Amino acid sequence: MMGQFYEELEPGTIYKLGDYQFTDENIKRFSENFAPVGFHMDDEAAANGLFGKRSAVGFHICSAWMPCFVAANKAARESIASRGEHLPEIGAGFGLETMKWIAPVFAGDTLSFQTTLVNKRPLKSKPQWGLIELFNEGFRDSESVVRFGSKMLVAKRGQ
Amino acid sequence: MHHFEDFNVGQVFKLGPRKITAEEIKSFAAEFDPQPFHLNEDAANSSVLGGLSASGFHTGAILLRLICDAFLTNSSILGSSNMESLSWLKPVRAGDELSGTCEVTALRASVSRPTMGIMNFTARLHDQHGTDKVELIGTFFFGRKSA
User: Fold this and answer.
1) Which of A51-60, A89-98, A114-123, B35-44 is least confident?
2) Contact criterion met (CB < 8 Å) for A35 and B32
3) How many CB atoms lie under 10 A from the CB of residue B110?
4) Inter-chain residue contact B78 with A50, CB threshold 8 Å
5) Alpha-carbon dihedral angle through residues A36, A40, A42, A43, given to the nearest 10 degrees
6) Contact (CB, 8 A) for B95 and B106
7) What span, in angstroms and rounded, lies between the C-alpha atoms of A13 and A19?
8) Which end of chain A has fewer CB atoms surrounding its CB within 10 Å, N or C?
9) Strand partners, B109
C-alpha cells in the first residue's frame, strides 16, 4: 500500500489519488461493452430517464478510482525504491462493499479520488500478509459523487 | 420487456456462458488497472495471483454485462444507487468460461417515486470447473407498468 509494509500503515491516513476525466467517448465505450441499456446508450431514453441525459455506468465510476490508485501507488513505490529501500510485494484485492452512487456523472466531469485507510488486521490463513480496509470516495469539485469500501492484502515486513 | 411487476422473488436468470480472453484482460487492465499481474503473463506467474488474471473491476463489469444480456437490456431499468458488495472469490483467468445465475431476492415499491420499483438481487459466476469466481449483491430500479 503506497510502498509501505503492513506494519507501517496507520488507520485514519487519507491518500489523495488523482483525477479521472469522463468523456463522451469513454462513457459510451464502457456502456457499450458492459451496460448497453437504453438510458446509458440512447439520448432519447436518457432524456426520459432519472438523470435527464446520458450518464456514466456506475461500475465505470468505481473503476475510474483504480487507475488513480495504481498511479499513486506506483509513484510512492518509485520514490521509496529511489532511496534504495525494500518494497513490499503488491497484494490482491478481495472486493468492493457498500457502493453508493450519490449523483450521476456526465461527459466533461472530472472526479478527484481519495482513499482512507479505515482498518487493518492480520490474517490467520496468510501469516505473511495483512488485510486492510479502505474507504474510497470520488469528488466533482467539492461534491462527493461516489463512495465505496474495498479490501486488499498488504505484505508484512516480518521479522 | 420486463417491467417491475413482471419479476418475482426467487426468480432465477441464467447468465453466460462467456469465454474470457487474455486480450480483453490486458485491454481492460491497460485502461483501468495497469498492474503487472493483469498485463503480463510472466509477471503474473510470479505474483500473488499465480497467473494472468482479470482486474476485479473487469470481472464485475463482465458480470453486469451478463445480467444485461439475461434480462436488463430488455427491461424498464432506470438505474441503481447502490450495490451491497462485489466479491472477488477466485482470480478469473484467460480461457475461463464463466456462467452463473442472477436471483431476485426482494421486490418493493419505491416510497419516494410511485412510478418506480426496487429489486434486490444476488448474481454469481463460476468457471467451467464449477469454481465460484465472483458475486454481486445489489439493487436495481425499474419502471412500473402503470407509469
Assistant:
1) B35-44
2) no
3) 15
4) yes
5) -170
6) no
7) 19
8) C
9) B117
Q: Tell the residue number behind the cell numbers 466531469, with chain if given.
A: A109
CA distance A53 to A39: 8
Instruction: Check if the beta carbon of residue A154 is closer than 8 Å to that of residue A132.
Output: yes
Neighbours of B123 (CB within 10 A): 21
Write the pLDDT tens digit of every residue in A18-39. Answer: 999 999 999 999 999 999 999 9
Query: Side-chain half-sphere of A7: how many Cα atoms within 13 Å?
Result: 8
B26-72 tens-digit pLDDT: 999 999 999 988 998 888 888 777 889 999 999 999 999 999 999 99
**Calpha distance B122→B85 (Å, rounded):** 10
B90 neighbourhood in chain A, CB within 8 Å: none
B96, three cell numbers: 475461463
Whether A56 contacts chain B with CB within 8 A? no
CA B127 to chain centre: 14
Q: Which chain A residues are Cβ-neighbours of B75 within 8 angstroms?
A: 37
Contact A34 B31 (CB under 8 A): no
Decide if A113 contacts A97 (C-beta within 8 A): no
H helix intervals, chain B: 22-32, 36-39, 41-45, 56-67
What nine digits make up the cell of A128?
Answer: 505473511
Q: Residue B10, CB half-sphere, CA atoms under 13 Å: how many?
A: 0
The pTM (predicted TM-score) of the whole model is: 0.96
Give the Cα separation of A148 and A66 in Å (integer).
Answer: 12
* ipTM of the complex as predicted: 0.95
Nearest CA to B53 out of B72, B76, B25 is that of: B25
- Type of residue at A92: A
SS3 category, A11: coil
